[in-house]
C-alpha cells in the first residue's frame, strides 16, 4: 500500500519508497479525507451541501475537481443516472430550496462551456466560440458569445445538464474509454428576492462547477491528436498548479494570465467566491508520481486563505420570475 488514509485526522500518509527507493513517509493534511467506499451522495451531504447553500445566501461559489486521468473526476462531478454527481445533486438542492421557501422569488440562468485547447465553446449552442473577458480588480467575468438559458424547472435544468455533458469532448486515452479532453464549466446564475416584510432585498450569486481534464502521461496516447490534447491539458493544469502554489505561499505577483483556465478561476481564487476543491486519487500501481502531484495540489489548495467573503446584494431593478408559479405550470 503506497498511501494510508486516516479519515479521523483527515490525513494521507504517502510512502515514497517506490519513488526514492528510500523509506520516506510524508503526511498530507486536508479539510476532509474519504476512503474508496464513499459514494457521491454521502460526499455531497458531508461537504458540498453546505458549500452550495452559500450560493443560495448570495455568495459566489466555485467547485472544481482535480486529479490524474481515470481517477474519477467526471464520476464525482457529473456522475450518471444511477449515481448522480455534484452537479445534479446541487441542482436538486437548489430546487428543494425553492419549493420549501415560497417567500423567495428566483431568476435562474444556466450555461455550459468547455475549455478545449485554450479556447472556450458553448456546449448548449452548437459549440459557438465564447470569449472570456475578465476584470480581475472587480473580480468579475463576462462571456461574449455565450447564451444563458433562463430555467424554470428542475427537469428543464437537468435536461440542460445532460445536453452539456453529451456535448463535451471525450475520447479514449491510454487509461480509459471516456477521458475528458477539455475542462467542462457549468454556471448557474441565481437572482433571489426575499419578499418577507423587513427583508426585501435582492441578492445575486454564481455557482460555477468545473470538471477538469486530468493530468496524464501524454506520450502514452496512441494518436497524434491524443498526444497533442494530453500536452495541452498538462500545460493548462501546470499553470493552475502554479497559481495554487502562489496563492498558498501568499506570493505577491500571481500568474493567472497564463491560461484560459486560470483566467476563468482568478476571480474565485482571489477571494471572490467560496471555493471547494475535490481531489481524486486512484490506487493504481505505477501512478505514484501523479498521485504525489494530486496530494501536493490538494494540500496547497487547502492552505489558501480566501479571506472574508462578500454577499452580493444587488440593486432593486432586477426582473424576477416567480419560480414557484412557473414550476406549477410545468407540472
Ligand atoms: N467512485 C467510483 N465508483 C464507480 N466507478 C467509478 C468511480 N470513480 C471512477 N469510476 C469509473 O472509472 C472510470 C474513469 O472515471 P472518470 O471518467 O470519472 O475519470 P476522470 O478522472 O474524469 O478521467 P479523465 O481525467 O481522463 O477525464 C469511469 O468509467 C467511471 O465510471
Ligand atoms: Mg473526466
Helix content: 25-40%
Strand proportion: 25-35%
User: What is the average per-residue confidence, as pLDDT, rounded to a whole number?
Assistant: 87
**Tally of helical segments:** 9
Order of helices and strands: EEHEHEHHEEEEEHEEEEHHEHEH
Category from helices, strands and their pairing: alpha+beta
Can you offer a commentary on this structure?
The protein is α+β, with helices and mostly antiparallel strands. It has a single domain, classed as Kinesin motor domain (Kinesin), CATH 3.40.850.10. 35% of the residues lie in helices and 27% in strands. The protein is built from 9 helices and 15 strands. Strands 4, 5, 6, 7, 8, 9, 12, 13, 14 and 15 form a 10-stranded mixed β-sheet that branches. It has a 3-stranded antiparallel β-sheet with strand order 1-2-3, with helices on one face. A two-stranded antiparallel ribbon has the order 10-11. A hairpin with a 2-residue loop joins strand 5 and strand 6.
Give the topology, please.
Blueprint: E1 3-6, E2 11-15, H1 17-20, E3 25-29, H2 40-56, E4 61-67, H3 73-77, H4 86-100, E5 104-116, E6 119-122, E7 128-135, E8 140-144, E9 149-151, H5 154-167, E10 170-171, E11 179-180, E12 183-194, E13 201-211, H6 224-248, H7 260-272, E14 274-280, H8 288-301, E15 313-314, H9 323-330
Parallel strand pairs: 4-13, 4-14
Antiparallel strand pairs: 1-2, 2-3, 5-6, 5-9, 5-12, 6-7, 7-8, 10-11, 12-13, 13-15
Adenosine-5'-triphosphate (ATP) binds next to α3 and β11.
Summary, kept brief:
This protein has 331 residues and is of the alpha+beta class.
Structural descriptors:
binds magnesium ion; ten-stranded mixed beta sheet; single chain; three-stranded antiparallel beta sheet; disordered C terminus; 331 residues; alpha+beta; globular; binds adenosine-5'-triphosphate; Kinesin
Amino acid at each position: 500500500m503506497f498511501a494510508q488514509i486516516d479519515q479521523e485526522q483527515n490525513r494521507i500518509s504517502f510512502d515514497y519508497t517506490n519513488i526514492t527507493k528510500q523509506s520516506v513517509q510524508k503526511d498530507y493534511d486536508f479539510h476532509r479525507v474519504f476512503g474508496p467506499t464513499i459514494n457521491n451522495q454521502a460526499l455531497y451531504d458531508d461537504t458540498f451541501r453546505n458549500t452550495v447553500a452559500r450560493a443560495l445566501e448570495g455568495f459566489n461559489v466555485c467547485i472544481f475537481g482535480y486529479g490524474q486521468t481515470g481517477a474519477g473526476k467526471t464520476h464525482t462531478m457529473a456522475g450518471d443516472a444511477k449515481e448522480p454527481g455534484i452537479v445534479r445533486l446541487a441542482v436538486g438542492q437548489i430546487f428543494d430550496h425553492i419549493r420549501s421557501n415560497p417567500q423567495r422569488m428566483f431568476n435562474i440562468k444556466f450555461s455550459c462551456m468547455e475549455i478545449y485547447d485554450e479556447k472556450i465553446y458553448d456546449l448548449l449552442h452548437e459549440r459557438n466560440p465564447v470569449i472570456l473577458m475578465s476584470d480581475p480588480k472587480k473580480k468579475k467575468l463576462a462571456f461574449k458569445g455565450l447564451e444563458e438559458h433562463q430555467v424554470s424547472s428542475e427537469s428543464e435544468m437537468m435536461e440542460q445538464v445532460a445536453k452539456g455533458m453529451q456535448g463535451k469532448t471525450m475520447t479514449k486515452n491510454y487509461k480509459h474509454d471516456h477521458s475528458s479532453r477539455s475542462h467542462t464549466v457549468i454556471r448557474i446564475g441565481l437572482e433571489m428576492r426575499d419578499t418577507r416584510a423587513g427583508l426585501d432585498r435582492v441578492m445575486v450569486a454564481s455557482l460555477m462547477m468545473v470538471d477538469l481534464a486530468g493530468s496524464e502521461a501524454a506520450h502514452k496516447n496512441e494518436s497524434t491528436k491524443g498526444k497533442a490534447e494530453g500536452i495541452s491539458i498538462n500545460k493548462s493544469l501546470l499553470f493552475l498548479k502554479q497559481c495554487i502554489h502562489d496563492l498558498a505561499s501568499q506570493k505577491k505577483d500571481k500568474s493567472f494570465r497564463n491560461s484560459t483556465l486560470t483566467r476563468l478561476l482568478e476571480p474565485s481564487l482571489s477571494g471572490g467566491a467560496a471555493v471547494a476543491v475535490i481531489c481524486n486519487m486512484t490506487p493504481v500501481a505505477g501512478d505514484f508520481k501523479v498521485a504525489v502531484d494530486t496530494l501536493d495540489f490538494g494540500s496547497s489548495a487547502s492552505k489558501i486563505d480566501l479571506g472574508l467573503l462578500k454577499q452580493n446584494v444587488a440593486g432593486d431593478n432586477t426582473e424576477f420570475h416567480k419560480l414557484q408559479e412557473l414550476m406549477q405550470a410545468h407540472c
